[in-house]
Amino acid sequence: MTDHAIITGASRGIGQALAARFRKEGWGVLSLARQPSHVPGVVDLGVDLGSGDWEPRVEAALRDTVGQARGHRVSLVHNAAIYDHDDALALTAAQLRRVLEVNVVAPAVLNRLTRPYLGDGSSILYVGSTLSEKAVKGNASYVTSKHALVGLMRSTCQDLAGTRIHTACVCPGFTDTEMLREHLGDDAKRAAVISAKSTFGRLITPDEIANVLYFCATTPTVNGAVLHANLGQVET
């Protein structure tokens, strides 16, 4: 039996890098994503967390994988997210519900489904954002959801008091992921501006954030913490 990680959105970017890191350390990994992770040894379950029919399949997958690891550490990592361009004064109910369903509701549901398998030393980790504690123009639903994720993590910490299970929210800065590249498009000038927003003058790599998350998974003293991993954000 081995320790086991459950990662949402492990088909690319930070989630994929984290799946590889857990596997390197000998953990079993269950990926919950629409596409496969392409990481050797990972069990891929194709699910759309924005749909309403994924719970029974995830419950079965948890029994078949994590259910065999009782007595070992289990780390649930909420990484999947929708990033939309929208305006707080023009946002429709449907737009907001779509983003919240994946970014906030799915993590809460997964906490409930996974709780029976979380023993001593286990963890529930949330991938937030610099926008978990600030806002920028044109990202209302994403900003709202990432603020809510911090609240969910803090509630998780309090509700797990005395269980020897810990939680934390890691807030990456500008990371060189497919999501960011899709956001920037082919605008090289804009990409240079984004890179200059860290004191190191570069983007963060997914592997760097994966290292922070793995540290959190194995370090109970971070319980309840919001950790900013942004290479030193340049504030203007």
The N- and C-terminal alpha carbons lie at a distance of: 50 Å
What's the helix count?
A: 7
Radius of gyration: 17 Å
Strands across the major sheet, in which order?
3-2-1-4-5-6-7
Residue runs with pLDDT of under 50 for 5 or more positions: none
Most strands sheet:
7 strands, parallel
Please report the total strand number as a whole number: 7
**Helical amount among residues, as a percent range?**
25-40%
Order of helices and strands: EHEEHEHEHEHHHE
Percent of sequence in beta strands: 15-25%
Secondary-structure content class: alpha/beta
Name the average pLDDT.
Answer: 93
Note the overall shape. Answer: globular
Report on this structure.
The chain has 236 residues and is of the alpha/beta class. Helices cover 39% and strands 16% of the residues. It has a seven-stranded parallel β-sheet with strand order 3-2-1-4-5-6-7, sandwiched between helices. β4 (74-78), α3 (93-114) and β5 (123-127) form a beta-alpha-beta unit. The longest helix has 22 residues, at 93-114. The termini are far apart. The model has no long low-confidence stretch (mean pLDDT 93).
